């Protein structure tokens, strides 16, 4: 329960721990681009058709709005904490300053799982899309090298990871420029689909806008959702219930905006720019998602939409099959963006945990010339390249969702705790209606977590158990608090800049900073 004081958190961002500072070269526009690049996934081209056909009909547009409202509550919580604590690490740092070291370790460990798997899954998917695109153009490149026993090496995925790590280590203009160009291409493809598709919309396809309720298909075995395993019953598709259930399904399309908060320490004016980046990217993506869903369900009846490639098939149905090639280009470019942002966010979480010595301090080093966490990026590059090259990680994709939702839950709690423990802390951005909105975020994210499969929960539990064992064997004894006694945190933000050895700021009072 050792809690890191706000003053100590802020000191580490200014190089007070001796590991160097990250360069503050990010503005609000860069943060919005980062958020859109991570959230605006190519899954929108698949998700819309799948959910519209199986769960909500044309009302899938309403489902996207409902999911955005819930996600917006979590974004508000991130905006308050990120503007008050503009330090690398995102949810890990926020949790350390509110709920304590053990909770911070758990959330940091979960974020490492989320961002690492996200980058690897995307790299593998990018490799497949690239080969498909090249095949359609008559170009055949070797995508794998046989290992003799049926195994293979996914060379394009590994090379993508290596290339992006190099770009991120170089940082600065190269990294920002690459991100902006890739996001611009991806957004242009989405806008192309919206504008061209709108000419083929028929009003009759919107009737009925909310189809009558009907029984939905259910999963079985380890793929059964946790909630359904304990509350058996037949879920409903379509109708009002189907629209709400669809909102829970499309929520995962918004996951990723929290990566914006990992750039807090590199933002020139974090108190202003971070809330704009978080909420602005969420708003832009919501508008695009709703527009795509309305165009798609207007082009073709929801009952005839393809589940695998709804946009390409819808354009085929109206006599324009070549649009599929444009979409394929957008998919290839878009996946590179998601992979780039995931690796960048993961390196900042690893940097923050290493600064606190919960992981080896060697990863906390900042490059003297480029001002980037080069050692963290190199280590992650090796791990991610090996995973994407040799491991079939498709079955682990759902772990990305549960890790993200777990972070949302703790950040929502953190807002309420920090309001009580540090009411004097300057908050350039404040969540309205506390504790109502953080409570809504907490409950909604928890509900989405229990709707994930038993297999996902079991795998996540194994990962957390491994993390707790590592913390007990290494982090607890080597953290910045190890062997030190707590002293009261300064009562005002204007207190001396030299932080105390450990600070009391958590919910357990004077005992929060003491050794167990």
UniProtKB/TrEMBL annotation:
Skewed-composition ranges (Low complexity): 500-516
Subcellular localization, as worded in the UniProt entry: Membrane
InterPro entries: AA/rel_permease1
Residue stretches spanning the membrane: 28-47, 59-81, 102-130, 150-169, 181-201, 236-257, 278-302, 322-343, 377-396, 402-419, 431-449, 455-474
Pfam families per UniProt: AA_permease_2
Region annotation (Disordered) ranges: 484-516
First and last residue of the signal peptide: none
Membrane topology label: Multi-pass membrane protein
Domain of life: Bacteria
Keywords on record: Membrane, Transmembrane, Transmembrane helix, Transport
Compositionally skewed regions (Pro residues) per UniProt: 490-499
Protein known as: Amino acid permease
